Amino acid sequence: MQQILLAINAGSSSIKFQAFATDGDRFDRRVSGLLEGIGSQPRLVIRDGGNTVLATRELDIAAVPSVEAGEAIVGDWLTGAMATDAIGGPIAAIGHRVVHGGPDFSSAVRIDDAVLARITALTHLAPLHQPKNLAPILAWRRRRPDLPQVACFDTAFHRGHGELADRFAIPDELYREGVRRYGFHGISYEFIAEKLQEVAPSIAAGRVIVAHLGNGCSLCALRGGRSIDSTMSFTALDGIPMGTRPGALDPGIVLYLMREKAMDAAAIERFLYHQCGLKGLSGISNDVRVLEASDDRLARLALDHFVYRITKEIGALAAVLGGIDALVFTAGIGENGADIRARIVAGSAWLGLSLDEGANRARRTDLGAGTSGPRVLMIPTDEEWMIARHTRRLLAIA
Ligand code: ADP
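Above: inputs. Below: predicted complex with adenosine-5'-diphosphate.
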């Protein structure tokens, strides 16, 4: 029986959603929406299943100061769309991206009161992200209490990590209370692991490093389609540099900020989430396109450092995997940043990676130079598709 499923991905300054018509294993995208620029220049863009823009609404910043306010706008649009059959029928269920699932959620789960309480209790592990993910869950529970809702966790795909990868070198009691190397972007990595079976079945079972390079950035080591390690850890701050986050830091820097700059936890949190990374280092922007267009010395340095750190971590994950069969690029920078891709591959030539410049510029799936070395691939991620898949699965067994 055909059902319409809605997938909602509420981030720190944007809300993405997609509605799929699904019948068995087929998922046809009916509509997708992006409300971006929340708190700065809010704008809602709705597209049909073929990616043609159906509507664009520039919104007043005063009307959309927060993700919660943005959720109401998206909710109103969806409610109207359901009434006019614009998405192909009534919604049967909603799946949500939830950043943190803590130590216990190792797969997607249907949301009931107890699950909601557990997700809410994990807010301290992702204080800036978890409340944004909770906003649409709570709003839809009020709006349509009859609709089943599902939570898909960014940490769940990594919960199979071995204990060596899951630990910090700190006392055991902290591990037992949840101070672990969780890893994030798991919904995206799971999608890529599935997609590899289709686009490169010969390497899907092998050793693959996936570079999810968007506003948040991380790398994941896959063996046989399962995550075995990742650069993000306890929070989404660790690992490689990002748009506004620094990636791995000497913890001594946090002590320095406390002692020498008299910064408290809230000030350090703002600094680490919003004022570092490409933006902090360049002093100009978190956007790779802006930095690439600039001849400022620090803009160039920020990009050089970004590539250097990613190349270094690819080496570390290659060591963990004992060599690699493929490197996969995904997310905003990974899918669109041809220069960044070329520089990362050049820096990883020692692993046998090489790039076909024409394929790289043309944004093909297969970017490799066709030598006998590991493959280089670009696969657009689709977290909402993965969320819809989990939602369907959980509905079927409910
Ligand atoms: P999010 O993590 O919010 O989902 P995205 O995956 O959409 O973010 O990635 C957003 C980032 O993608 C932007 O900050 C920008 O740096 C980068 N990006 C988008 N287009 C390009 C491009 N043509 N070249 C390089 N980087 C790009």
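The pocket of adenosine-5'-diphosphate is lined by residues 11, 14, 214-216, 243, 286-289, 331-333, 336-337 (CB under 6 Å).
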